[in-house]
Structure to design on (623 residues):
């Protein structure tokens, strides 16, 4: 079996390297204009967010609607680090570390959200996570130190297509490993039937905790990337509207599918850019899309399906 | 000291009445469908805007209508249209999902709420609107308390609506059907209860009551913007969750309205004392007052 896997794995790493090189070369070469590069970076950031939310909502079947809170915490933590803590000259080199710290800060917040998820599911957890999102936003608005409602600025523009691509690849590859591991089997079991999962020896508490931590971590990383792309963040960017956008991307692409997340993030981001001439009416499209999706195709485009290269590395399942 | 407390309680009763009217819609829908209707706050917002439109239209007519007529006209207009809106939302967005997982319905509700919000924003633009004065601005001093006609109108109006609702739910056939559906949605159709129609009516009544609350809110706090629905609706939602514990177990309708009545004032009566900005309460007070409100709700439920 190992020999069978070999070509596929090496193909993926080859493709990843190629993508990274492209991400380095393309913006520098001037083939793509800066606007397109910017949109590509947004697509990448949204991919990370969607993947992270899909871990909780799609694979684990919990219902988190406050993911923008994690993103906000990651964004503020990373920004504080680059603006106040690190010397300016170091920041380009320390950027990956900064993002990791932002992710870790979000993961700590994930702990707070994970605990109610041990006790509540469905609607109840939705309320808790919604409240979490609002708490994060309100706290940020009331923290004068980081600018309060005016927002926080001064971050250098460290995010570029290379870093975004790299983090998308890291997220995809790690999550792919995770969802096909014991851990992934465990959270899928939680989705299908939590009591039965517990009965068959799945440590549901620990798995839920891990899932929330991992999910929050990547959302925090995306927040850090976002902050250093826009060079300005304010609490309003991390409101429930942002969480709804993420939900749309997850359910558009498809729950329980990595490919779906990538697809959903791409389609939604590009669609919102195409609709930019509509002005305020653009914000009607997202919610409307969400409602229509829920009614007509609740599993999304790729619900529980996967592209070949993202599938499990096994010859054939005996189902 | 007593005067300050009493004055605060009175002011709180005014705001709490509005919250309670909105909260009733949340609990009615949750009771009957176990669906958190996140769009309800925005239905309230639409109701407020509709009453604004009616009031401005009637005041603009060259008939010189008395203010009472304008008030009643705006009330009827907004209640009727908002009821229709509630029914339409239920028909188009929630009914196709009645057999779907609960989470899908909740996401849909979120989507509908944001849609209403942004749709209003798209039509009317982001600038706040001013609500015309329909109730004469005057104040009476009684035992050192300042009482305004508006305050009396809101508190009495909310009380009347709640008593009517209580009567409807407990004493009429429709109310019996509602309670039956909330008790068991599978068996009830076998008894010949038209489930769809009862659910539609529930949405209509909940939305109409929210519209009445919207008119009252507009009169008391006359600045409207499209995001008021999510802001005010959220407090009402907390009132619904904490005051009525509608989120667990089968709801007991008679207790619900009263628990909210009792909770909502407490939610905000500490407002002026904590020094938060006037119309918008801070979260802390609602949580701190929760145990008493809960016990009140439980007590009433046991009695009922």
């Amino acid at each position: 079996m190992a020999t069978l896997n070999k070509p596929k794995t090496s193909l993926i790493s080859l493709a990843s390297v190629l993508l990274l090189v492209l991400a380095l070369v393309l913006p520098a070469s001037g083939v793509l204009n800066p606007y397109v590069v910017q949109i590509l970076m947004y697509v990448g950031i949204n991919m990370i967010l969607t993947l992270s939310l899909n871990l909780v909502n799609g694979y684990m079947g919990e219902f988190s609607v406050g993911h923008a809170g994690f993103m906000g915490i990651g964004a503020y933590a990373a920004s504080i680090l680059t603006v106040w803590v690190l010397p300016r000259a170091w920041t380009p080199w320390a950027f990956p570390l900064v993002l990791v710290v932002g992710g870790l800060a979000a993961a700590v917040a994930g702990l707070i959200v994970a605990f109610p998820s041990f006790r509540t599911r469905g609607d109840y957890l939705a309320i808790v996570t919604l409240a979490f999102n609002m708490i994060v936003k309100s706290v940020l608005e009331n923290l004068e130190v980081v600018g309060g409602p005016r927002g926080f600025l001064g971050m250098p523009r460290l995010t570029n297509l290379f870093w975004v691509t790299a983090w998308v690849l890291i997220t995809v590859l790690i999550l792919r490993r995770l969802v096909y591991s014991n851990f992934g089997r465990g959270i899928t079991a939680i989705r299908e039937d939590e009591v039965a999962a517990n009965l068959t020896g799945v440590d549901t508490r620990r798995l839920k905790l891990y899932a929330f931590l991992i999910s929050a971590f990547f959302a925090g990383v995306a927040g850090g990337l976002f902050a250093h792309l826009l060079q300005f963040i304010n609490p309003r960017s991390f409101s429930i509207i942002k969480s709804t956008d993420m939900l749309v991307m997850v359910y558009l692409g498809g729950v329980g599918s990595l490919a779906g997340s990538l697809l959903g993030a791409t389609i939604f981001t590009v669609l919102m850019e195409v609709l930019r001439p509509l002005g305020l009416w653009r914000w009607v499209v997202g919610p409307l899309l969400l409602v229509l999706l829920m009614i007509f195709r609740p599993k999304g485009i790729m619900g529980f399906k996967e592209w070949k290269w993202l599938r499990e590395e096994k010859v054939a399942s005996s189902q | 000291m007593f005067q300050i407390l009493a004055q605060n309680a009175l002011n709180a009763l005014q705001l709490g009445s509005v919250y309670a009217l909105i909260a009733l819609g949340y609990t009615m829908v949750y009771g009957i469908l176990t669906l958190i209707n996140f769009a309800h706050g925005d239905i309230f917002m639409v109701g407020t805007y509709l009453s604004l439109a009616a009031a401005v239209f009637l005041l603009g007519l060259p008939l010189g209508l008395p203010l009472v007529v304008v008030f009643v006209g705006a009330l009827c207009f907004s209640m009727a249209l908002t009821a229709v809106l509630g029914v339409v939302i239920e028909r188009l967005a929630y009914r196709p999902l009645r057999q779907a997982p609960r989470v899908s319905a909740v996401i849909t509700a979120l989507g509908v709420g944001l849609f209403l919000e942004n749709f209003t924003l798209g039509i009317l633009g982001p600038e706040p609107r001013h609500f015309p004065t329909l109730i004469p601005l005057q104040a009476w001093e009684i035992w050192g308390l300042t009482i305004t006609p508006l305050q009396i109108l809101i508190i009495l109006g909310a009380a009347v609506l709640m008593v009517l609702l209580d009567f409807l739910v407990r004493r009429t056939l429709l109310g019996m059907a509602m309670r039956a559906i909330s008790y068991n949605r599978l068996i009830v159709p076998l008894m010949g209860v038209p489930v769809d129609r009862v659910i539609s009516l529930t949405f209509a009544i909940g939305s109409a009551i929210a519209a009445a609350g919207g008119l009252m809110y507009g009169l008391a706090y006359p600045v409207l913007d499209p995001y008021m629905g999510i802001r005010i609706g959220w407090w009402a939602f907390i009132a619904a969750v904490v005051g009525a514990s509608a989120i667990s177990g089968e709801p007991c309708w008679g207790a619900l309205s009263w628990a909210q009545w009792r909770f909502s004032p407490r939610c905000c009566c500490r407002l002026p004392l904590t020094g938060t900005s006037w119309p918008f309460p801070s979260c802390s007070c609602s949580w701190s007052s929760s145990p008493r409100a809960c016990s009140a709700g439980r007590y009433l439920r046991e009695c009922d």
